[in-house]
Design brief:
Helix 2 crosses helix 10, helix 6 packs parallel to helix 7 and helix 9 crosses helix 14. The protein folds into two domains: 230 residues, 3-Layer(aba) Sandwich (D-Maltodextrin-Binding Protein, domain 2), CATH 3.40.190; 88 residues, Periplasmic binding protein-like II (D-Maltodextrin-Binding Protein, domain 2, 3-Layer(aba) Sandwich). Strand 2, helix 2 and strand 3 form a beta-alpha-beta unit. Helices cover 44% and strands 16% of the residues. It has a six-stranded mixed β-sheet, sandwiched between helices. By secondary structure, it is of the alpha/beta class. The radius of gyration is 19 Å and the shape is globular. The protein starts with a helix and ends with a helix.
């Protein structure tokens, strides 16, 4: 890992809880921006969302993104009304708290890579009694690692929470973490920087939501028109990227997004989205009720939620009204 990349990671981590106002169309004085909470650092993975937010701004819906230091803090900010929209898949939070929060757009499905330092471990069985590192409590990375714990009959000594796939990959390269889970871009980085030192552990096929957008029912009702425009732009942006992933690089330059990314990090954007599109990471339909059953089945197997996926009402966790209205309008 280059010193430049390490410096960026430290700077990005220190920038958490800052707010970024996007350009788009000038907001009228009475317009309140739709504020989006991201419990992570800004990275190439954020570009598709940022592009959709810019496009919504061009249609008169000003938007801002605020970075928090974890998904737990972000969901509390949504619940308290500090922000309007959150990024994540808060099934467990909704079930445990009965909070009036509903997901409304499925942004991505899980595509993660459990990876170990091969000088220390060689397979899942070696992680019995060992520490592993994931993104955050309640995240898809934790669910995957918990599920593998069950499937392989092992028990971790501890799960540590380190937001940011880039940060976890950096810790692997520095030797401070020996077992973690990263995204495709950072798995490539580990291969490039470490070669055979970093081994990918096998993952049985999993079809589950990685990240969705969610809001309180009050926000969905009070800002229904603005939210629908945003969802329309999400659908359009996801479709454009699926057709031509190179558009991510073009629109990043056009909108001036994430200008502080080092060149070697920014250059990963198009390859990352090309690989993600190829692997179906970014669904273009925004989500369906059947996806909720898949999510519940996955999370229940990982011990994060309870209940039979065939008996749970999808509307307990999702509101598809905005998505259906946006599809009808396109």
């Amino acid at each position: 890992m280059t010193m430049e990349r390490r410096s960026f990671m430290r700077a990005a981590a220190g920038a958490l809880t800052t707010t970024v106002a996007l350009s788009g169309a000038p907001a009228l004085a009475q317009d309140e921006p739709l504020q989006v909470a991201l419990g992570d650092i800004a990275s190439v993975e954020s570009l598709n969302l940022l592009i959709a937010m810019e496009r919504a701004g061009e249609r008169g819906v000003p938007m801002e993104m605020t970075f928090f230091n974890s998904e737990d803090v972000a969901v509390q900010a949504v619940l308290s009304g500090e922000v309007d929209i959150g990024v994540g898949a808060p099934y467990a939070f909704i079930q445990n708290s009965d909070a009036p929060i509903r997901m409304f757009y499925r942004m991505s499905t899980l595509m993660f890579f459990p990876v170990v330092n091969s000088d220390v471990y060689s397979g899942w069985e070696d992680l019995d009694g060992e520490e592993v590192t994931v993104h955050s409590r309640g995240s898809g990375t934790e669910a995957l690692m918990r599920l593998m714990e069950q499937k392989h009959g092992i028990e971790y000594s501890q799960i540590s929470y380190v937001p940011g796939s880039e940060v976890r990959a950096g810790a692997m390269l520095q030797g401070t973490v020996n077992a973690t889970i990263v995204d495709a871009a950072n798995f490539r980085l580990l291969q490039q920087e470490g070669g055979d030192k970093f081994q990918r552990l096998p993952l049985e096929g999993v079809n589950a939501t990685d990240e969705a957008l969610y809001a309180t029912t009050d926000v969905m009702e009070a800002r229904a028109e603005d939210m629908q425009i945003f969802v329309e732009e999400l659908l359009g942006t996801w479709a454009d990227i699926a057709e031509n992933p190179e558009i991510v690089g073009e629109l990043r330059a056009e909108y001036g997004l994430l200008q502080d990314l080092p060149d070697n990090v920014a250059s990963e954007a198009v390859p990352y989205y090309a690989e993600a599109v190829e692997n179906g990471v970014y669904p273009t339909d925004g989500g369906e009720p059947s996806d909720v059953a898949d999510d519940i089945a996955f999370l229940a197997a990982a011990g994060q939620v309870s209940g039979d996926p065939e008996e749970i009402d999808p509307e307990r966790f999702w509101n598809f009204d905005l998505l259906e209205a946006a599809k009808a309008a396109n």
